UniProtKB/TrEMBL annotation:
Residues 1-22 have a biased composition (Polar residues). CDD domains: PT_UbiA_chlorophyll. It comes from Cyanomargarita calcarea GSE-NOS-MK-12-04C. GO terms for biological process: chlorophyll biosynthetic process. The chain crosses the membrane at residues 141-159, 165-181, 193-213, 219-238, 259-284, 290-311, 323-343. This is Chlorophyll synthase ChlG. The keyword ATP-binding does not apply. Its EC number is 2.5.1.62. Pfam families: UbiA. It comes from the Bacteria. PANTHER family: CHLOROPHYLL SYNTHASE (PTHR42723), CHLOROPHYLL SYNTHASE, CHLOROPLASTIC (PTHR42723:SF1).
Length: 345
């Protein structure tokens, strides 16, 4: 994959150089490629030499945001969060657990087991490009996993939980991350199971963790976050469009491979919109009508951007769609969390 962006040739340059013809494209480095690589986005650059930046690339920081936000939504749904220094520090530690540590563990693990696929889809990634040896990748996986679960234990003690709820969620999430990426199960080989595993990781696990940190986690919140994760399945499907070629070559049954790009795009947007609307219906059921109305209003611009970008060209516009439409999804999650906290669910 090229790390260079074509520009229109300058006729004056062509007059003074022997190697460039008037019809030849001259390429210059894409200045944003390094940033995209660091964040874990597609269309990045290779050639990074700082080992700490390479380790950060493996952890894909762009993927931490939904999990950190899920913690905020869970804290809101508890109805017990107050703005004290201790609670802010608790929240920060929980965000560190959900984002950089366990999401970083998940992404590094996935990079390790997907190194052959990435050699086709994203050869500039740290492992297929040879930027970091495999033993160092394995060490990073273990450090993130162990540190994350130790912090989960500490948060249970800090919250005074009689049952180690946060630790249980962390262990369960770590296990699902493993079977998502690693053989023999490798859930990502199945578009539906793999997509929902990601959706639960984005929404249900951090939501329940944030709730358990400040309140008592109950079955209603668990079911609510699990249902909301079906909208997260739509988010997960978006990530599959950049990998269609490699997934098809290696036999991974992602939804774009199984159903085709356009049908998978429709499945993606319908899942997101349908289950958000269902959540709004539940808010009406518990008499939180104002919050339900706000949530429904947030779906409108989301649908607009789905039509403008994603449905018209999913392969070209996946990143643009995520940047424009998904902020309304995550704002809707917070609205729903505040509504649950207000209702005392």
């Amino acid at each position: 994959m090229s790390d260079l962006t074509p520009i229109t040739p300058n006729p004056q340059i062509n007059q003074t150089t022997d190697s460039a013809s008037p019809n030849e494209e001259i390429k210059v480095p894409d200045r944003n490629a390094k940033t995209r690589q660091l964040l874990g986005m597609k269309g990045a650059a290779s050639g990074e030499t700082s080992i700490w930046k390479i380790r950060l690339q493996l952890m894909k920081p762009i993927t931490w945001i939904p999990l950190i936000w899920g913690v905020v939504c869970g804290a809101a749904s508890s109805g017990e969060y107050t703005w004290t220094l201790e609670n802010v520090l608790k929240s920060a530690a929980c965000m560190l657990l959900s984002g950089p540590l366990l999401a970083g563990y998940t992404q590094t693990l996935n990079e390790y087991y997907d190194r052959e696929i990435d050699a086709v889809n994203e050869p500039y990634r740290p492992i297929p490009s040879g930027a970091i040896p495999l033993p160092q990748v394995i060490t990073q996986i273990w450090v993130l996993l162990i540190t994350g679960n130790l912090i989960a234990i500490a948060l249970d003690l800090w919250a005074g939980n009689q049952y180690p709820t946060i630790t249980t969620i962390a262990i369960l999430g770590s296990f699902i991350a493993y079977i998502y990426s690693a053989p023999p199960l490798k859930l990502k080989q199945n578009g539906w199971l793999g997509g929902y595993a990601l959706g639960a990781s984005y929404i249900a696990f951090p939501w329940c963790t944030g709730h358990a940190l400040f309140g008592e986690l109950n079955w209603k919140i668990v079911v609510f976050s699990v249902v909301y994760s079906l909208a997260g399945l739509g988010i997960a499907i978006v990530n599959d469009f950049k990998s269609v070629e490699g997934d098809r070559q290696f036999g991974l049954k992602s939804l774009p491979v199984v159903f085709g790009v356009q049908t998978a795009a429709w499945i993606c947007v319908v899942m997101i919109d349908l289950f958000q609307a269902a959540i709004a219906g539940y808010l009406i059921y518990i008499h939180e009508n104002l919050y339900a109305a706000i949530l429904l209003l947030l779906i409108i611009p989301q649908v607009t951007f789905q039509d403008m970008y994603f449905l018209r060209d999913p392969l070209k516009n996946d990143v643009k769609y995520q940047a424009s439409a998904q902020p309304f999804l995550v704002l809707g999650m917070l609205v729903a969390g505040i509504a649950l906290g207000h209702a005392g669910v």
